[in-house]
Amino acid sequence: MKRNPRKAGRDHAGFRTIVSGMTNIALAHLKGRRRPSAIIAAIVWCAALGLAIGGVARGDVVLAVGALGAMVMALALPAYTRLSGIVMPAGLATGVLTFSLAAFVVGEWSGAYTWNWWWDIALHLVSAAVLALVGHALVLLVSAGAPPRTGLWIGSILAVGFAALVGAAWELMEFSIDAIFGTNAQRSGLRDTMGDVAANITGAIYGAVAGQLALKRGTRLPLSGLLLDFCNSNRLIYGAWPGVPFHQTSGQPDNDVTTRMETT
After folding, report:
1. pLDDT of 213-231, one tens digit each?
2. How far is CA 261 from CA 12, 82, 242, 255, in A?
3. Which residues are CB-neighbours of 60 under 8 A, at least 6 positions away?
4. Domain spans of the chain?
5. Does residue 66 contact residue 55 with C-beta atoms inside 8 Å?
């Protein structure tokens, strides 16, 4: 079947427009970064762009969609910052891009899920740890970033619960996709699902403990700096954030801070 040259031209023009827009956002995101981290980030973004272009040129739908999807997910963070004013931690967008490429391109396209039994587990561990840190950030919203009156371990339990909830929703989505479309997202079925659940809980526990140590002692374990950077950068929503380590005395936001937030 012959392709319509005009339609093909429009398709390529549309693709170039999308890539150009995504590149501009990515370049704006990289401005102001420290040189070593900016170089690493630039390499990752260029690799993703190269994979997307290569996938389109070869007609490899899985590769093209995987690489472009990874870039879209990563660029959603700086785009959200522009719309809301909520500042994301430095390097988070590049981290999301790296994770997405590891899942979509390395995992699905290259088949790492099949020939590396630990690949899927590693991704579940990392994602659950980050989700637990997100859970800590959500808990701190209640007190506007001030040390809560309850022990930090309460927040850790809620953080693990949040990560486990998202993980369970993901497994339910995989099951639904397999049931509706006849795919094999769950691979070995129950064994794969239980392994994912165990990895999710393990990663969530690590993230919750790392977040608690970061708040209580200022200890920066791997990934936990994301929580501190996010709270430090967003005084708009964490107006009573005192910095770390937390000193749980009254556990309540300062009255003047609370008044200013209510007035705003």
Report:
1. 999 999 999 999 999 999 9
2. 50, 22, 15, 10
3. 54, 109
4. 1-114, 116-264
5. yes
